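Why should sequence recovery work at all? Because a backbone constrains its sequence more than one might expect. Tight turns favour small or flexible residues, buried strands favour hydrophobic ones, and helices have their own preferences. The token representation captures these environments compactly. In the example below, the structure is given first.
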């Protein structure tokens, strides 16, 4: 089985260093460095990446990457055979975060992109990772698409086995978002780790 990872928003594949997935093939999100992909719409990007996947693939997704992994598994059931999802959510705005918080964050992002990205990454974890070269326009559009995207219908259609991992100290997507996804995916398991946050959960597989 061919293993692929998909990182989260404003990060890059360095998040997988020191994890069980360090040697997998790492997919880079549009606007987050040198990516093969260009769409900033969640479904269109899932189709774009899905066309690239070979048969018998396993997807490891973190945060926004987990959303893409679920959509790809729904759209390409003949290709995706397993999902490993870290810090996922059914919907970021309204479930993981109040809508007013999301709207305020997006406004701040457009006014002061670099500072707002740094604030977001500090919220994810105290662990400090290198900041990738970000395309402000593309990265902002991708976050807007993710923030209001409802994963429910894609999750209900899944038959592929899914392992879900979330940290109890995750203040970004949160335990509630992961629990709701677990309840929608029939063949899923959920593991909650008390001491882990949005980023450090990646080391608990």
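From this structural description, the recovered sequence reads:
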């Amino acid at each position: 089985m061919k293993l692929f990872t998909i990182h989260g928003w404003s990060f890059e594949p360095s998040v997988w260093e020191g994890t069980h997935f360090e040697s997998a093939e790492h997919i880079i999100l549009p606007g987050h460095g040198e990516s093969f992909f260009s769409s900033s719409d969640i479904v269109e990007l899932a189709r774009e990446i899905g066309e690239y996947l070979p048969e018998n693939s396993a997807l490891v997704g973190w945060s926004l990457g987990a959303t893409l992994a679920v959509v790809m598994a729904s759209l390409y059931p003949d290709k995706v055979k397993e999902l490993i999802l870290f810090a996922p959510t059914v919907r970021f705005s309204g479930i993981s975060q109040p809508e007013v918080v999301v709207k305020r964050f997006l406004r701040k992002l457009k006014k002061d992109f670099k500072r707002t990205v740094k604030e977001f990454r500090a919220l994810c974890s105290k662990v400090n990772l290198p900041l990738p070269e970000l395309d402000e326009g593309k990265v902002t559009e991708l976050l807007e698409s993710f923030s209001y995207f409802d994963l429910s219908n894609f999750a209900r259609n899944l038959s592929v086995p899914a392992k879900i991992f979330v940290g109890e100290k995750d203040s970004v997507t949160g335990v509630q978002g992961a629990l709701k996804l677990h309840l929608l995916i029939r063949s899923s398991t959920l593991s909650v780790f008390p001491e882990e946050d949005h980023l450090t959960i990646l080391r608990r597989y």
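A few observations help interpret the result. The beta strands are 2-6, 25-27, 57-62, 80-86, 162-167, 188-193.
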